[in-house]
Design goal:
It is a single chain. The protein is an alpha/beta fold and 746 residues long. The protein contains 20 helices and 26 strands. The protein has a six-stranded mixed β-sheet, with helices on both faces. Strands 4-3-2-1-10 form a five-stranded parallel β-sheet. Strands 18-26-25-20-21 form a five-stranded mixed β-sheet. α2 packs across α14, α7 packs parallel to α9 and α15 crosses α19. The radius of gyration is 27 Å and the shape is globular. The two termini are 40 Å apart. It binds alpha-D-glucopyranose (GLC). This is beta-glucosidase. It catalyses: Hydrolysis of terminal, non-reducing beta-D-glucosyl residues with release of beta-D-glucose. InterPro entries: Cellulose_Degrad_GH3, Fn3-like, GH, Glyco_hydro_3_AS, Glyco_hydro_3_C, Glyco_hydro_3_C_sf, Glyco_hydro_3_N, Glyco_hydro_3_N_sf. Its EC number is 3.2.1.21.
Length: 746
């Protein structure tokens, strides 16, 4: 490299280091500014910062509270002018401390992206980051600078309505998607007016609620906590997430908002989180209902003493903390520590220097760029489950479009879309009408049902006549928005109502049937399979779901999504997930079930292994599964070595070939199994994935690298390390990957 080039490189490096130093010094300075401000604050003012209120309406009482410094944060106001009035009142308080304005911006603010379970199906963290960035830009212009996302609860129970908000069952995928959302929401500089503080939630284990019943108890062992539920939070913490939210559930009898070990020893201590901890909605007050706190004062004392910095909505801190401090039951140093986290976040967001929202600039909501990003996300999030040579469709075909989700602008958005406007949703029917590419299609459309829960079959009589006039029927079924999300658990996850009957009725007409499902969870659809020649699964695809689905159905886009969660055959199989333990009696693939021809069968004739007599051991579709219009073949798995030292890395290479005539993208997945551990290790663990695009007939070597750190886990002594021994490794297009090899870690 010549001298000129070297000098130029050195100059750029110096600039980069100066910028990093400046940002870091800013952080250090905030410590100084925080201490100066804290030293001026009265106990009442400190406690006021720890009190987060829900915004119901603007009134003098609220403004008075703000002016008196009795609240540090408000959630659920989305009008920038209202925010400015509130911030003005805050800046007029004795010490002029601005407010944190928060909202649940989970998968979009106005432009709605696929629900997080759908985004996870893309196996594309860029989708999640872009979606979060778009949401931050749209929400921040409306005054919101703190969102309660990403939700990174591991979810293995499709009965739980909040599986919709999660990235699914796998810690590795969940960690990567959560990290991407943190980056998207927070941007590179939290003080940028388009940045929002992110919030890793719900800490921790909420997705393991017993029976899939929301808010229910969990019984997560220390091993499962450390090796399954905490890793995604560590990933978000390492990505710099500004806040963490405690969960509603009690784990092993202790509610998270009062769990000293969880918050002090693990979150603050072991995981090194140094941001703001906020409670979930009424969870501090709910410790009374749990039977963990005697009354509001007791609850306030418990939470304040375990380091819960900000109490959402129950106002027990503002009612009781002063007295608790005076009684010596809560140390003022604890209060000071919480207030430091709160003030520091406000400094980092730039709120002290500029708390106000510019109200006259043009809006970014629903911009073409944002809508295009939402469409791209919806395309990559769709999973092709079945295709008996029916898809892609062609535009010469006469098409019957039926079903309640074909034109459901609100329900297509999914859950947690407080601010998404259904009038902007482009449904599949809407796309047919508005998109010039599809305007000339010969389509007969009839919803047949008013909604997915409509049980009026009187329109079934129209089906035969409609379908017989066409070449192919496309049926849009699934779940209306309210059937998933918070407090929306289901004990039966079949297609609800008479949707399966509708599908059967359509198939009677003898034409090819394409089933498009829009839902907030994996449904048990085995009984529907015989009546659908192709199935495209969309986890509520958001604002641009219509154009995305049409492009996929007509081959303008090629499905590439993979399942982020196992699809069970029967709800009774739950929990059933790919990264399970082997047990001492794993069921072989040919495990017999009840339906044999034996009579007077003896007790030991079936079932001496770990499976279900009536539904076997296999799911309907495994984690990581998804088809494409292309055909991908894997071959030549080679390891850089079959022996790996603790300080080595191991590279695996596989040849991926697109043997079809259609360009497409495959999510290549890397799984391992640690064959012997000081505690049992799962039969498979996802340790890498790559989206690989191949032209027709193209081949490519796909490489992964593993280090001992990638193989480490919390062992029987709760020490995180890799243990020497043999490992199996597989590479393939789902968690059923069979192309494998073995290596020895020494
Ligand atoms: C809700 C949810 C939580 C949300 C909070 C604020 O009950 O559990 O995810 O962020 O309250 O709306």
């Amino acid at each position: 490299m010549d001298t000129q080039k070297a000098l130029r490189l050195l100059f750029i490096l110096c600039i980069f280091l100066c910028v990093k130093l400046h940002i870091y010094s800013q952080q250090l300075n905030y410590d100084k500014e925080v201490e100066i401000l804290l030293s001026k604050m009265t106990l009442n003012e400190k406690i006021g910062q720890m009190n987060q209120l829900n915004f119901y309406e603007m009134n003098d009482e609220l403004l008075e509270k703000v002016k008196k410094g009795e609240t540090g944060s408000l959630l659920n106001t989305t009008d920038p002018r209202t925010v400015n009035l509130l911030q003005k009142a805050a800046m007029e308080s004795r010490l002029g401390i601005p407010l944190l304005i928060a909202r649940d911006v989970i998968h979009g603010y106005k432009t709605i992206f696929p629900i997080p379970l759908g985004q996870a199906a893309s196996f594309d963290p860029q989708i999640a980051e872009t979606g979060a960035r778009v949401a931050a830009v749209e929400a921040s212009e409306n005054g919101i600078r703190w969102t309660f996302a990403p939700m990174i609860d591991i979810a293995r129970d499709a009965r739980w309505g909040r599986i919709a908000e999660s990235p699914g069952e796998d810690p590795y995928l969940t960690g990567i998607m959560g990290e991407a959302m943190v980056k998207g929401f927070q941007g590179t500089d939290l003080s940028d007016p388009t940045s929002m503080a992110a919030c890793a939630k719900h800490f921790v284990g909420y997705g393991a609620s017993e029976g899939g019943r929301d808010y229910n108890s969990t019984s997560i062992t220390p091993n499962a906590l450390k090796n399954t539920y905490l890793p995604p939070f560590q990933k978000s913490i390492d990505a710099g997430v500004a806040t963490v939210m405690t969960s509603f559930n009690d784990n092993d009898g202790i509610p998270s908002s009062g769990n000293k070990n969880l918050l002090k020893n693990i979150l603050r201590g072991e995981m090194g989180f140094n941001g703001l901890i906020v409670s979930d909605w009424n969870s501090v007050g709910e410790m009374i209902t749990h039977g963990f706190a005697a009354d509001g004062k007791d609850a306030a004392m418990i939470s304040a003493n375990v380091g819960l910095d900000m109490e959402m909505n129950t106002e027990l801190y503002i009612k009781h903390l002063k007295q608790l401090v005076e009684e010596g039951k809560v140390l003022e140093t604890n209060i000071d520590n919480s207030v430091r986290y709160i003030l520091k976040l406000k400094y980092r967001l730039g709120l002290f220097s500029n708390p106000y929202i510019e109200v006259n600039k043009p809006t970014t909501t629903y911009s073409d760029k944002h809508l295009q990003a939402a469409k791209d996300a919806a395309i990559k999030s769709a999973v092709l489950l079945k295709n008996e040579n029916v898809l892609p469709l062609n535009e010469t075909q006469r098409i019957a479009i039926l079903g309640p989700m074909a034109d459901a602008p609100y329900d297509q958005l999914g859950t947690w879309i407080f601010d998404g406007n259904a009038s902007h949703t482009v449904t599949p029917i809407g796309a047919l009408k508005s998109n010039k590419d599809y305007k000339n299609l010969k389509v007969i459309y009839e919803p047949i049902l008013r909604s997915t829960t409509d049980t009026d079959t009187s329109n079934f009589s129209k089906i035969q006549e409609i379908v017989k006039k066409t070449d192919v029927a496309v049926i849009f079924l699934g779940e209306e928005s309210r059937l998933s999300g918070e407090a929306h658990s289901l004990s039966n996850i079949n297609l609800i109502g008479v949707q399966s009957e509708l599908l059967k009725e359509v198939k009677k007409a003898g034409k090819p049937v394409v089933l498009v499902i829009m839902a907030g969870r994996p449904l048990t659809i085995e009984r529907d399979l015989p009546y659908a020649d192709a199935i495209l699964y969309n986890f509520h695809p958001g604002t641009m779901g219509g154009p995305a689905v049409l492009d996929l159905l007509f081959g303008k886009a090629n499905p590439s999504g993979k399942l982020p969660v196992t699809f069970v055959r029967e709800v009774g199989q739950i929990p059933l997930y790919y990264n399970h333990n082997n047990t001492g009696r794993p069921a072989p693939d040919n495990a017999k079930t009840l339906y044999t021809d034996e009579t007077n069968a003896k007790q030991t004739s079936v079932g001496d292994v770990s499976f279900y007599l009536d539904s076997g051991k296999e799911p309907l579709y495994p984690f990581g599964y998804g088809l494409s219009y292309s055909k991908f073949e894997y071959s030549d798995l080679t390891l850089s070595s079959n022996v790996m030292g603790m300080n080595d890395t191991l590279t695996m290479s596989v040849t991926l070939e697109n043997t079809s005539s259609i360009e497409g993208t495959e999510v290549v997945q890397l799984y391992i199994r640690d064959l012997v551990g000081s505690i049992i290790r799962p039969v498979k663990e996802l340790k890498g994935f790559q989206r690989v695009n191949l032209k027709a007939g193209e081949s490519k070597a796909v490489r992964f690298t593993l280090s001992a750190e990638d193989l480490a886990f919390y062992d029987v002594d709760m020490t995180k390390k890799a243990e020497p021994g043999y490992f199996n490794v597989w590479v393939g297009g789902s968690s059923k990957a069979e192309l494998g090899d073995t290596f020895l870690l020494e």
